[in-house]
Design goal:
The chain is mainly alpha-helical. The protein has one domain (3-71, 107-276). Helix content is 66%, strand content 1%. It has 13 helices and two strands; from the N terminus they run H-H-H-H-H-H-H-H-E-E-H-H-H-H-H. The chain has helices spanning 3-28, 36-53, 55-70, 72-81, 88-104, 114-132, 136-141, 148-156, 168-174, 179-206, 216-236, 241-264, 271-282, and strands at 158-159, 162-163. Strands 1-2 form a two-stranded antiparallel sheet. The N and C termini lie far apart (123 Å). The chain crosses the membrane at residues 12-31, 37-59, 110-130, 179-199, 225-247. This is Membrane protein insertase YidC.
Length: 321
């Protein structure tokens, strides 16, 4: 076993265990154990399990993104303060003030991409598995928690005539009869790109305040809008079908999850918040993030022994005639 196989062992075992569990359950429910649909649904269920586990990280990501948007006016002032100053002392001072600003508002820029990074071990584990399953050693001994029979079933299964280990680029270059593989993988790559683009686009167009739409934070978001889909195009042509199924399902989950958050719990000052307040107004509900008007109970109460009672005029004694 090589170094990378040893490094990936905990992740491949966990992924293969979940796949084996769902494959067994779906087989018990009546699906053909050799069918590609059985393994496709097992991969989709794997995505659901992983994304449910990552919900706490997603919540922290949302809080961090909103915190970054809230402090953008202060970040822009800091950038203006050190504009044109490129000496090491100024750069260090700016970095220290920026870190102090993040600490004051309890914002961690790293958290904005943590859910994506947390999925990488699962992604690479599945990719590593599919690249190993065709080897005779694993066909005979099994791989991770998958038995030899399950490895052979996974490797031999097909979805609409396309195998789980088939790849766009080798099929396109070597075998002209493999056009069904090219078409299937192309559709999935396009789905990956479009879902990623739409997810980032709805974040920028609806869930960012006016202050956050300017400055370095906005430039970073625009870069992600075009760079991430490009990464999926470049990598997708080398991904096996099983990995494409996993990542496409992940993108659909992310898109739906973010749509729900933007619609029901938008960033203050964003277009999504205005749209939510319009929907609430149509239902006769008060706007969100609105401070309630002060009521009689909120007014300060008079102090003293006779609080709440009106002062009675004192009686003067009459002079006797």
């Amino acid at each position: 076993m090589g170094f990378f196989d040893t490094l990936m062992t905990p992740f491949t075992w966990a992924v293969s265990f979940i796949l084996s569990l769902f494959h067994t359950a779906l087989t018990f429910l009546g699906l053909d154990p050799e069918s590609g649909w059985n393994w496709t649904l097992s991969i989709i269920l794997l995505v659901i399990v992983i994304r449910v586990i990552l919900i706490p990280l997603f919540v922290r990501q949302i809080k961090s993104q909103r915190g970054m948007q809230i402090i953008q006016p202060e970040v822009q002032k800091l950038q203006a303060k050190y504009k044109g100053k490129k000496d090491p002392v100024s750069r260090q001072a700016m970095a220290q003030e920026q870190q102090a600003l993040f600490k004051k508002h309890k914002v961690n820029p790293f958290m904005t991409c943590l859910p994506l990074l947390a999925q990488m071990p699962v992604f690479f584990a599945l990719f590593w598995m599919l690249n190993r399953m065709r080897q005779e050693q694993y066909q005979q001994d099994g791989y991770g928690a998958l038995s030899a029979g399950e490895v052979q079933s996974f490797d031999g299964s097909e979805l609409l005539g396309v195998g789980m280990s088939d790849i766009f680029l080798p099929s396109f270059q070597s075998d002209p009869t493999e056009w069904h593989v090219v078409i299937m993988t192309s559709i999935m790559i396009v789905a990956m790109v479009l879902t990623q683009f739409f997810t980032q686009k709805q974040l920028m167009s609806k869930n960012m305040s006016e202050a956050a739409l300017q400055g370095q934070f906005a430039q970073t978001q625009k870069m992600m809008l075009y760079m991430l889909p490009l990464v999926f195009v470049i990598g997708g042509v080398n991904f096996p079908v099983g990995v494409l199924i996993y990542w496409t399902a992940t993108n659909f989950w992310t898109m739906g999850q973010q749509w729900w958050v933007i619609r029901n719990n938008p960033t203050p000052g964003s277009l999504a918040e205005k749209e939510l307040n319009l929907r609430r107004a149509a239902k006769g509900l008060p706007p969100i993030n609105e401070k309630p008007e002060s009521t009689q109970e909120d007014k300060p109460k008079p102090t003293g022994k006779h609080r709440g009672q009106q002062a009675q005029p004192s009686k003067k004694k009459r002079k006797k005639k």
